């Protein structure tokens, strides 16, 4: 397995790019450690496939370099990069048995039969498909086919990286959670460098130790799932991750203090100086409902099982709050209290408060 470095990568599909909008990938600098579990997360069109294709060698970047363990592979074709890939749709041979499908990547590289048998048996146990080894792949259900496809990606232990490209797309929703946690478990056992590409926050946050969030060709934050939830570096991350996403509210900054709908708010720390559109970001989980705070009126309450989501209006602005206790009903007056350590200022989308050290 390898450490992967992306250095000053940029890519444009146009021959003569002139403005930042011409780039499907803006400048990307990234280090992925050997053996880590990473996710690339972002909405459709943000550049995930472009980046994946550059790493696998299907696409040559307009600028920058890709290094595996410090060795420049930018000019190498896919077959010389020693990568395993698992795609959206299962890639297996229907006429072969499950055993032969799993053995294929090893036999293809001339691994001896004793080692093939040992490794296939090991991977089959991890995937809990031992009882299917003799079955013809054509007879498998779609989710089992995709499991075997994943097994084929994991069976070689000499690859630099295993890349998963939206691997759960074809899986029934009620089976997704099973495969999601299976993959996490597999990473812990196999300890390969893995990159998981998805637009689904649950998949990314379940799988990865570190998530790279992309928007419009740019990395907006790299962090652990907890970091992305607790301290989004950009309003996009706050909005995209979480359900419901972070409240992003209009704000005025006067004399170093933040005001929302005319009320002064306590925020996590000092507000950085600068020009641009300022907004307040606070997650619904950190908005308390009670007798103190900003006066608001409840517009709607949604019961989503474990908790309730309350839509309240302050002045003209909608604020969401999540509560697991009793909540006021529709049309009632209430006060909202934003937890100061979780209330931040953003300027032109980017975090503009500094945390006061505790
Ligand atoms: N072959 C191409 N020629 C021109 N533009 C392209 C090409 N492939 C992708 N793009 C553009 O590059 C940008 C990034 O696309 P990309 O497919 O990498 O995003 P993505 O995040 O993988 O989206 P999806 O999940 O829909 O595949 C988009 O604006 C897309 O329209």
From TrEMBL:
Keywords: ATP-binding, Cell membrane, Hydrolase, Membrane, Nucleotide-binding, Transport. Pfam families: ABC_tran, TOBE_2. Residues 4-241 form the ABC transporter domain. Signal peptide: none annotated. Its EC number is 3.6.3.20. GO terms for molecular function: ABC-type ferric iron transporter activity; ATP binding; ATP hydrolysis activity. It is an enzyme of class 3 (hydrolase). Gene3D superfamilies: 2.40.50.100, Nucleic acid-binding proteins, P-loop containing nucleotide triphosphate hydrolases. One of its GO terms (cellular component) is ATP-binding cassette (ABC) transporter complex, substrate-binding subunit-containing. Belongs to the ABC transporter superfamily. This is sn-glycerol-3-phosphate import ATP-binding protein UgpC. It comes from Roseovarius aestuarii.
């Amino acid at each position: 397995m390898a450490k992967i470095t992306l250095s000053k990568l940029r890519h444009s599909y146009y021959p003569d790019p002139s403005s930042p909008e011409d780039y499907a990938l803006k400048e990307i600098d990234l280090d992925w450690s050997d053996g880590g579990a990473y996710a690339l997360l972002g909405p459709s069109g943000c550049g995930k496939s472009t980046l994946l294709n550059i790493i696998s060698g299907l696409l040559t970047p307009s600028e920058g370099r890709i290094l595996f363990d410090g060795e420049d592979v930018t000019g190498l074709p896919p077959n010389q990069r020693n990568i395993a890939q698992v795609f959206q749709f299962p890639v297996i041979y229907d006429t072969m048995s499950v055993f032969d499908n799993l053995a294929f990547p090893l036999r293809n590289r001339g691994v001896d039969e004793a080692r093939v048998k040992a490794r296939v048996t090991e991977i089959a146990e991890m995937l809990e498909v031992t009882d299917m080894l003799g079955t013809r792949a054509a007879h498998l259900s779609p989710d089992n086919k995709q499991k075997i496809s994943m097994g084929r990606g994991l069976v070689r232990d000499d690859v630099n990286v295993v890349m998963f490209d939206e691997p759960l797309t074809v899986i029934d929703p009620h089976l997704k959670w099973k495969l999601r946690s299976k993959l996490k478990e597999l990473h812990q056992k196999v300890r390969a460098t893995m990159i998981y590409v998805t637009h689904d926050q649950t998949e990314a946050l379940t799988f990865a130790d570190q998530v790279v969030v992309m928007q419009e060709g740019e990395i907006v934050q790299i962090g652990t799932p907890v970091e992305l939830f607790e301290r989004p570096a950009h309003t996009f991350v706050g909005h995209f991750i979480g359900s419901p996403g972070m409240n992003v509210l209009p704000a005025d900054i006067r004399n170093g203090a933040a005001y929302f709908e005319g009320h002064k708010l306590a925020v996590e720390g000092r507000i950085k100086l600068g020009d641009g559109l300022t907004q307040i970001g606070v997650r619904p989980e950190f908005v308390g409902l009670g007798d103190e705070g900003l006066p608001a009126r409840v517009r709607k309450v949604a019961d989503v099982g474990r908790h309730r989501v309350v839509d309240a209006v302050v002045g003209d602005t909608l604020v969401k709050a999540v509560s697991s206790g009793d909540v006021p009903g529709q049309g009632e007056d209430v006060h909202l209290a934003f937890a100061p350590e979780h209330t931040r200022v953003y300027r032109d989308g980017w975090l503009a408060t500094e945390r006061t050290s505790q």
